[in-house]
Write a structure and sequence with these properties.
Oligomer: heterodimer
Distance between the termini of chain A: 53 Å
Helix content of chain B: 25-40%
Number of strands of chain B: 20
Strand order of the largest sheet of chain B: 1-2-5-4-13
Helix content of chain A: 10-25%
Number of domains of chain A: 1
Order of helices and strands of chain A: EEHEEHEHEHH
Largest sheet of chain A: 6 strands, mixed
Radius of gyration of chain B: 23 Å
Number of helices of chain A: 5
Strand content of chain A: 15-25%
CATH superfamily of the largest domain in chain B: Sulfite Reductase Hemoprotein, domain 1
CATH architecture of the largest domain in chain B: 2-Layer Sandwich
CATH topology of chain A: Rossmann fold
């Protein structure tokens, strides 16, 4: 299949934690992305290997990571890998994105959310603010407790 | 013992409020049962046959007397006056109401406890050697490393939705008392030739439907890279573990299908990358944690001999006490396997008593073992008789550690919705049979383990004798296995042949036990005789 809009546009993004203008470009599949030299947006499915994108991070402006089911946690590793390798563009979680997974997703580097079903915004805000601290390092700026302990 | 600081306390307190909020949203219909399920599981709440079960984490099996008292109070207040200690060194309450769950978590948080990640497809509570800090044979106390991993794995954002559950054990001795190589990751803290401490990583062990002994993936990870290496192991699993079939989703299948060498290669690659990502804790944190596990102030000049004039007491010492690193002390086991009892169950009154005895006789500390007993780790030999007398009066003085009466059994069809057969009544019958015929003591070390279905929660693959309950055309049938071990001589048991009915399995066990008594050579345990003779003579005796 060639590149086509998979259905997520700017209107579908419910939560966004970036200052820059939201990219309104269509994301293509990983295979399709790798086949062309000018695509700027890609969509990762759980079975895709995010490492295939590493040589091309510089031209990427939007990466969507699809969660067909919230219980499939591969997208968390994909997101963190991309951030660890220097991707700074928009990282958008799409699909079965729920309130109680938002915080872990933020910690793994997601900065935009386009849930299939809109989230209750008060619940989402509460879930994101629930914990003051974290135990371990991830792809966010949070300083782990063990670093705070030893200044 | 490890003590929470304000950070640890804030984490468990926030968790209680988070769960309260999730339960509220479930009741308001904002969360479907499917959406709520992993959330409650990661808070230890599991739906059984008759009610919710709550599994409380007991990190590396260590409890203070205050915590044991609190567990007893929960049994009284929210359950039916008892609790069940598990093969993962945790405690389960079998009769919990969903609407009480948040309050129980709040009670736990007051004594620095929780139920975080005790179920669900995440990194579970870390288990360890029940004699940690006491065993004469240990290299170091393994618990600081387990505590470091507890913190690392708690609310780990990348590994909360793994293909399947993930269990880690940490030991630090050549003797394996934690079934280390039957874990998803088994870590042995070792000393290298230069005298430095490091971690040997065994990855891909497990029981369940497809039992596997974990291969060694790396023999020595320096302590200041241990968390990073664990992170690499988990990431390879999270990315590549199978998700198409629940029964093939554990890491053991990945390691097996990929090959241990290829898995290790991928971990090394990920590890090399992660070393630059700053995931390792500062080494000072390990030192801070270690400071909580300093040995207590042992007395000196204590007697090293107990008065053995009471034969029942002498037997209890021989069976239930283990050598201690400090002269004049032993570790004493409280058997939760009274003859005909339910393995691992303790009443609230017994828990209160064990808490008091831990305070009075063992520097305020006790341990849960994977064999579902309780250890008082540091007891003066000179005070053992006094201790034993108090235990015996409360029905806690059974002298059968690692004997045929010390059975590991899963909850089975009496509680569990997955089970095909009952485990508890079978274990009761076996325990009664070998107590009444007097052979139990004669047989010496003989580890018997019973599972009520192929998921193997009762560790039947690792029993010197294992029993697997199956459903055969609508009736309970019990398969017999021989030759397993969860210890340093780890092996997987083999099925003898056709299964037996409930009474038949008890007879069958007596048959194999008799054969052992007849054929054993000097000093051999049942397992040694089986290994020397092989399966054939046992089959012959069973099936003729």
């Amino acid at each position: 299949m060639a590149d086509f809009d998979l259905g997520t546009g700017r209107d579908d993004v419910q939560l966004r934690f970036r200052e820059d203008e939201q990219a309104s470009i269509a994301a293509v599949t990983v295979d399709s992305f790798l086949d062309q030299t000018d695509a700027e947006a890609v969509r990762i499915e759980p079975g895709d290997d995010a490492r295939d994108l590493l040589p091309h991070l510089a031209r990427l402006r939007l990466v969507e990571v699809n969660f067909p089911s919230y219980t499939d946690g591969r997208g968390y590793s994909a997101a963190r890998l991309l951030r660890e390798h220097g991707y700074t563009g928009e990282l958008r979680a799409v699909g079965d994105v729920l309130v109680d997974q938002l915080r872990y997703m933020r910690r793994c580097g997601f900065d935009a959310f386009a849930p299939e079903r809109p989230l209750d915004e008060a619940d989402a805000a509460a879930a994101l603010e629930r914990y003051d601290h974290v135990y371990q390092a991830a792809a966010d700026e949070a300083v782990p407790i063990w670093n705070l302990r030893h200044g | 013992m490890y003590k929470y600081d304000h950070y640890d306390q804030a984490m468990v307190d926030a968790r209680v409020e988070e769960f309260r909020d999730q339960a509220r949203r479930r009741l308001e219909g904002k969360l479907t049962e499917d959406q709520f399920k992993p959330l409650r599981l990661q808070n230890g709440l599991y739906l059984q046959l008759h009610a919710y079960m709550l599994r409380v984490a007991i990190p590396y099996g260590t409890l203070s007397s205050m915590q044991m008292h609190a567990l007893a109070d929960i049994a009284d207040k929210y359950d039916r006056g008892y609790g069940h200690f598990t093969t993962r060194q945790n405690i389960q309450y079998n009769w919990i109401k969903l609407e009480d769950a948040a309050d129980i978590l709040a009670d736990l948080a007051k004594v620095e406890m929780h139920a975080i990640q005790t179920s669900g497809n995440c990194i579970r509570n870390i288990s360890s050697d029940q004699y940690a800090g006491a065993a004469a044979d240990e290299v170091v106390d393994p618990r600081p490393y387990a505590e470091l991993l507890r913190q690392w794995s708690t609310f780990h954002p990348e590994f909360a939705y793994l293909p399947r559950k993930f269990k880690i054990a940490v030991i630090a001795s050549e003797k394996d008392r934690a079934a280390m190589r039957l874990h998803d990751i088994g870590i042995n803290i070792v000393k290298n030739d230069a005298g430095e401490l490091g971690a040997s990583f065994y990855v891909g062990g497990g029981m369940g439907r497809t039992p596997m002994i974990a291969p060694l993936i790396r023999d020595f990870v320096p302590l200041n890279q241990m968390v990073t290496y664990a992170e690499a192991c988990l990431r390879v699993y999270n990315r590549h573990g199978r998700r198409d079939n629940k029964y093939k989703a554990r890491i053991k299948i990945l390691v097996h299908e990929m090959g241990a060498e290829e898995y290790a290669r991928q971990v090394e690659e990920e590890f090399a990358h992660l070393l630059d990502q700053g995931v390792e804790p500062p080494f000072a944190e390990l030192e801070r944690i270690r400071s909580f596990f300093q040995p207590p102030e042992f007395g000196t000049g204590l007697t090293e001999k107990a008065d053995r004039s009471d034969p029942d007491f002498a037997l209890w010492i021989d069976r239930n006490c283990s050598p201690h690193k400090a002269p004049g002390y032993v570790s004493a086991a409280i058997s939760l396997k009274p003859v005909g009892g339910i393995p691992g169950d303790a009443t609230a009154a017994q828990m209160h008593l064990m808490a008091e005895l831990a305070k009075g006789y063992s520097f305020d500390e006790c341990r849960v073992t994977h064999a579902q007993n309780i250890i008082l780790p540091h007891v003066e030999i000179g005070r053992l008789h006094e201790l034993w007398t108090k235990l015996d009066e409360a029905g806690l003085g059974t002298a059968n550690l690692d004997n045929i009466g010390d059975i590991i059994a899963c909850p089975g069809l009496d509680y569990c919705s997955l089970a095909n057969a009952r485990s508890i009544p079978v274990s009761q019958k076996i325990s009664e049979r070998f107590a009444s015929n007097g052979k139990g003591e004669l047989l010496g070390e003989l580890k018997l383990k019973i599972s009520g279905c192929i998921n193997a929660c009762g560790h039947h693959h690792a029993g010197h004798i294992g029993i697997l309950g199956v459903d055969r055309k609508g009736t309970e049938n019990y398969q017999l296995l021989l030759g397993g071990s969860e210890a340093e001589d780890v092996s997987l048991a083999k099925i003898t042949g056709p299964g037996f009915n409930e009474d038949g399995i008890v007879d069958a066990i007596e048959t194999v036990a008799d054969l052992y008594l007849e054929r054993r050579e000097d000093g051999e345990r049942f397992l040694d005789t089986y290994r020397r003779l092989g399966m054939d003579p046992f089959k012959e005796a069973l099936y003729g």
